[in-house]
Write the structure tokens for this entry.
Amino acid sequence: MRNWCLPLLLAAGQVALLWSGPFGTPGGPALLCVAAAVVLETIGASRRRTAPVRALACTLGALAVGGPAWPDGYLGLGPLVALYSVAVRCPVPVTLRAVAAAVGVEWVLAAVQEHRGPALVAETALALGGYLLCAGLGEARRQWLAGRLTAARRLAGAEHARRLAADQERRRLARELHDVSAHHLTSVVVTVDAARRLQDGRPDLAAEALAFAERTGAETLTALQRLVGLLRDTDSPDHRPMSGRIEELVAGFGRLGRPVTARVPGDLAGPSAEAIHGIVREALTNALRHAPGAAARVQVTRAAGLLRLTVENAPPRTAPQGTGRLGGGRGVAGMRERAAAAGGELTAGPTPEGGWRVSATLPDGAEPRRPDGPGRRRDVLREQRLADPALVSVAMILPLSFVLALTEDWSAAARRATLPALLVVCGLLVLHAVPLLWRRRAPWPVLLAVLATAWAGPAAVAAWHLPSSTAQFLPAGALVETLAVYAVAAYGRGPGRTWPAPVAAALGTAGAMTVASWADRSVGGEPTSAGGAVLLAFLLSVLLAPVFTAVWGAGLVVRRRRLRALAFDEFAFASSMWQADRAAEAERRRLAATLRDAVLEHTRALVGAARRGDLAEGAGTARAALAAMREMLHGLGDGGETGARLAPSPAVGDLEVLCRALRRGGRDVRLRGLPEAGRDLPPSVQVSVYRIVEAALGAGDPGPARVSLRRWRGTLRITVTGVRLAVAGPVAERLRVQAAAGEGRIVCEPAGTLRVVLPAGAVPAPVQEVSP
């Protein structure tokens, strides 16, 4: 009905005009042509949403048929509606070509009807103004819809991030905890074991190992408490350059008894530098674990905007003893995750000499990011401001068309006599409309400039003694003041402070009209006095004030509606991000409790044993802490649900449970079509239906929603309304994949309506269903 309502209304108006006969009744062949044109225009305009260019072609064809058949009575409004749809749904070049085609058809029809001279120019100018106005309004609507779609995608992304916040926080903490266990606890185990083996021949190593265990255990406690929020660290953050921190890290491994060389640029910064720090720490820890005593080399080079990291160690001098079970099996995977998170890639593997090499390529975060070029910025602004030049063109064309239409009946001698005055008046009308080009950026200065140029007409009449026959065309530019007042209300700062705009426009326009008419001491061709001119100014102000006030009020309404939509977007986005923070915080608290029970107690025992000088107990507690950490990391890698079992696949009947749960949460959700539509559906189709409706309703829209199911000709039709966030972004992509897996079709309308058609027969199951 949305597609057919307006075309049928236009057709009804055309039939009513034909039935009432104010312009006469066309003959038999002409009547058939008019009827065919009405049918063609109605059918073409009904497809303006799905195929706007074809709709415009059909309506222009109908105009070419019906216009010559009945010049006085055929309305031909279909091309205006179709051109608006073209501007809404097509890019700017297509819209400009469509305007040119429509104006060309109008010019041909006007020329065929034997219009010549000013009449032909006036009719073509009026057509150009009307088509430009429709194109400008359509372009403004297209930009608004594009902004709404961008906001919907942003909200959908925020909602997607909210749903994944807990999992991402768990993965981040798992990576950080693995770094802590790998670097700190593994170093303690290796050092203490080496000291125990060599304490008979090197008793001094025991004291060094105990001091190292105490220091490293304290660092581990601090790091763990910082990660999970158990303690608030009041120290200032580490502002040292990342290059110095990497060199300090390498020097720390060198103190463990292995030769390590490093070549690192001195200005590493950004996420890539942090990734390099983590990769170097992990790679050297692996070398310490699997290649004791082997030399290692760390090198970071910069070339072509990239950072190339190489960490290589020689073959082990002796076989590793007692370290085969120290690792958690996540070292290389964690390094790859770090590199990928920074936008790079990593490879790891053995060298021909028997050692091990880790190579990573990362973007250079120290180089400043280049901003977008000025050409692209100008193109974006030009595209966004197409509506303003179109509106200015209309404000120029309509008064000029009015002038041409009124001078059509003048004699050739009168036209030649008044040609200079007419050119002056036309120039003033064009100058009067030019400030509207900046109506969005500076609405108040534009209004003042418009009122100032309006007084240029009376000044020209008084200075050059323009005749009354040409001065009477100056009030035709009053449309410009109307547009300026609307701009102040819609785009001016502080809507409560824009009320002087209609008052100033009414007084200024009335004064300019009165002075222009009274400049030759006559008003309407009759002599008048100064008192009469003041009375005329008062009457014009009274008549114009309601018009400007209504336009000002319309601008405020549009402004309020736009700001409410933007405020809703910001609130929804902030709400999603707040919920994501709460989910991440809840996950951190859960992990904090697990860490307190699993790791921190063992780490505190390690520090205590090191302070007491008990090397054997220190080695045992270090291994216990490392084992607890590894077990916890495996649990995090499994998503924290190691005992999840397969659950039965959802059915269409479960949609009632889903809607009741949403209603308990405060959202108005209505479901229609059950149980008739869901009877005898294959399990795979029921799974697809449930997942599609669940994803659409779970996109994050807070408003009411309606779900309708209907069986028709072997298909199941699903209609979900009120889900603006589900028709764009990741949610829409997931719905398309789900519909394609069910061999169905899906249509996402920008207004927030989702239409899905699925075959009612058996189709392959899209995914294996597991417990949430």
In short: The longest strand covers residues 296-303. The chain is about 65% helix and 10% strand.
